[in-house]
Amino acid sequence: MELRNSYMTLVMLVIFSVLVGISFTWPAEARFMPNVVGIPAILLCLLQLALDARKSSAKEQAEHSITDEMREAEARVSRMTGRAMHFDVAHEIELPEEVAVSAAEAQKREKLAWVAFTAMLSSIVIFGFPVTVPLFLTGFLYWIAGLALPRAALYAAIATTVMLLVFEMVLQTELHRGILTPLIIDWFRP
Amino acid sequence: MIDTMFGSLFGMVSSPQIMGLMLVAVLIGLMVGVTPGIGGRLSIALAIPFVYGMDKVSGAVFLLTMHAVNGTSGQISSIMFGVPGDGDDAATTIDGHPMAKKGEAGRALGASITASGVGGIIGAVVFAIMIPVLEPVILSFSPAEFFLLAILGITFIAFLSGGGNIFKGIVVGLFGMMLATVGLDPVSGVGRYTGEFLFLWDGLSLVTAVLAIFAVPEMIALATRGGSISKVSMATAKYSWRQLLDGALEVPRHWWLVLRTSVIGAVIGMIPGLGGSAAAWMCYGHAVQTSKTPERFGHGAVEGVIAPETASNAKEGGSLLPTLFFGIPGSSGMAVLMGAFLILGIQPGPAMLTDNLPLVWTLIWALVVGNIIAISILFFVVRWAARLTFVNGLILVPFILTLVVIGAYVSEGQWQNLVVLFVLSLIGYGLLKADWPRAPFVIGLVLGKVAEDSLHKALDLWGPGFFLRPLSLVLIGLIAATVAYAVWKEVGTARQRKAEVA
């Protein structure tokens, strides 16, 4: 069974089952559409689980490079035109490569990115945009993107200024000030 | 009709505000097209917060122009460095990059920029021609057909984006439709999935959901894999202005091919879900088949650059047709655009023909004028624009994430939307990691409310037998045929794989 795919199928199955289950607490007309959508989705998830189970667990999930895609395209155009095609880009040209990242490093970066994103959202809710954005940008650029601290702080300051100018001054949209920040400001105010 | 057509053009070009916005949209669209890691639909989603407060014409013109010119600059990295920005540009790489390697980068770029712009303009013209032709068909559609069209739209996009598994695509589309039911039920007034949260009464914020499913997962993935650095130096891509001009002149020299591939591209764009890469590949194949010297293709034939470029930009005009008149987005980019239109107060559907025709013509002209501006600007800045390809994607991540969060907040001015953003981002990232398609989600979310409304109306008018109407039967036949073909194809691939292993 393709575990990664089945995991997502199970997540979707649980989501749909819960949503359809909740809908049964409503009157018939209110639950009509959720049932029209949800019940077929549950059946499709079950079908997908069965399909996943049939597939070989040994199936390789090979990463496709640009060159592989070009080779596939070469075969496709050959079939389409009925003549053997030869694309230089699929065979002779050395294409640019992405900077190789080890699995452990990728996992670390993934965790860091999620932690940074979660921290940013939580901080915005509590302290608001004007406080969080410069700190988040500086932190991300310094710790994750590897920029020097003064440069990271400069980029963050410019971006925050632009953000406040565009949204607060030009578009007249007040950005969230946070739940705690106004209370703290009031507390310090004489 | 003629009055409306030219009145809209005059109204647009005589408004300094709209023309100024178009210029900004073209510049942003071109920049985004070149910059790695930001796709067309993502750029539209990110731009939505900026159109709040604009009137519907200005906002729609701004977003459509940005979307339309996005692909025009995407081929720069394909030609110069052999790195296709997205699926649409892959076909251009095949002959464009060998041309650059032979020292003809300028000629390839001139041809591709001009072909792309001309393709966009012809696509808009094809769309305009189709309006009087399709008007009676569009107006004959009833609520029953609109419900089935929503299902057909999801089925099409699920088939094309499902990577060989239509069921996953349909499940994701249905998930979008399910989330569209969040809020007060229009019939009974009961709160559905709202709990005790007042902010959910009006439904889930479309912008928040789209940003969560598309933008956040892409950014986390970009942060995880780091930026891509081209091994090819800028020196490989040296060229003269004369070469650029010579390339541009290749387009009128191959006018018949340009016309054919533009029309093919526009027609493919009209079929929901087929999208740009299908148009580009089909037209590339067409150029090979109709060439007297097909052996040159794959080694640097200029027709191999012109054909896919005209097609992939012409499809934008075509895909606007189902989006505006049927409310069925032609592509995932168009789905995001349609969501933005709804926010601006533009309700796609047959009423666009009866009540909003001047706006339709303004959008057609926006495609034409936007492409002309894009070609003019790109000719002068292409040399510098190429440098954006070297921007480290990792540095862009925090800025884009900040824009995403601002977009989610500004969409309804509710901080609670940030919690929704987080939860849906987790699901979006799961879909990305498990290689499930995400495009059907937007279509489902956008069409969910329309589908529910149409279903209720159809049941009120004709009862449960509404799907026995002749047009409904045709649509049901199309849905069944799409699913059957997808299953047949998947079974065939599985058998082939098994045979290869044996």
Helix content of chain B: over 70%
Runs of chain A in which pLDDT lies below 50 for 5 or more consecutive residues are 57-62
Most extensive interface: pair and counts? A-B, 87 and 87 residues
The topology string of helices and strands of chain B comes to: HHHHHHHHEEHHHHHHHHHHHH
Write down the Rg of chain A: 26 Å
- Structural Rg of chain B: 22 Å
Number of domains of chain B: 1
Q: What is the count of β-strands of chain A?
A: 0
Main β-sheet description of chain A? none
Strand share of the residues of chain A? Answer: under 5%
Measure the end-to-end span of chain A: 66 Å
Number of strands of chain B: 2
Major beta sheet of chain B, specifics?
2 strands, antiparallel
> Would you tell me the structural class of the helices and strands of chain A?
mainly alpha
Helix content of chain A: over 70%
Q: What can you see in these coordinates?
A:
Chain A has 190 residues and is mainly alpha-helical. In chain A, 73% of the residues lie in helices and 0% in strands. Chain A folds into three domains: 3-54; 64-98, no CATH class; 103-188, no CATH class. Chain A has eight helices and no strands. Chain A is extended. Mean pLDDT of chain A is 82; it is low at 57-62. Chain B is mostly helical. Chain B has one domain. Chain B is 76% helix and 1% strand. Chain B contains 20 helices and two strands. Chain B has helices at 2-13, 16-34, 40-51, 56-81, 87-101, 105-140, 143-161, 166-179, 206-225, 241-253, 255-270, 275-290, 303-326, 332-344, 351-354, 357-385, 393-412, 416-433, 439-462, 470-501; strands spanning 183-184, 191-192. In chain B, strand 1 (183-184) and strand 2 form a beta hairpin. The longest helix of chain B has 36 residues, at 105-140. Chain B is globular and about 70 Å long. The termini of chain B are far apart.
